[in-house]
Amino acid sequence: MHKPLPDRAEQKRLAAEAAVGQVADGMIVGIGTGSTAAYAIAALGRRVGEGLRVTGVATSLATAAAARAAGIAIVDLAPIDRIDLCIDGVDEIDAGLRAIKGAGGAMLREKIVAAAADRMIAIADETKRVGQLGRKPVPVEVLPMAQAFVVREIARLGGDATVRCDPAGTAVRSDQGNIIIDAAFGAIADPAALATALSTVPGILGHGLFLVEIDTLYLGTADGVVTVD
Ligand code: 5RP
Question: Which residues of this UniProt protein bind substrate (predicted)?
């Protein structure tokens, strides 16, 4: 009898476990946020249970809680200037390892942890692979007082801005207490120019375009994990 092909959840798990296989004893590990990262937390927790010594830096409060529950020691990033390896999910990623992140609203902390890391491995199932970035909106974290101004600036840049709300209609707050605006641009012809433009808008504290941070992609596919460097 044939083994069933990996479904989407299985692809996430396989990619996450391949990435956790790159963690060496003594490393400081940046731990991502989301459902794919949750598989990495479980796998890393198992390795810690087997004796691996790691220090984790979490990209969100939810990840910190899940990692601690899995037995992983989590420390604050504030006194740490260098992380060995960051493992995190993506919302979409192109052939040049440029990605959009932040569907979980954690892209500000995720960007800092990724930038502090010597190496970042993105983990994803094959639905995340795109020919051109922009199928999904670019999430931006915004100081609440700047909401209307940032909406106007996103429109000036050609985007369609939506303040992220929960089902009750209340604006979602980031771990830092800021609002999230999802900025839809459609196919992004020049991601670097857009990243620069977003970064220069006062009130935008961070955005979900990750254009230079990712070194390696572990992509779960129906045929197993494909590595893209
Ligand atoms: C959170 C993120 C996540 O990594 C991204 O949304 C992918 O999540 P998932 O693995 O659940 O698809 O950027 O801010």
Answer: 33-36, 88-91, 101-104, 128
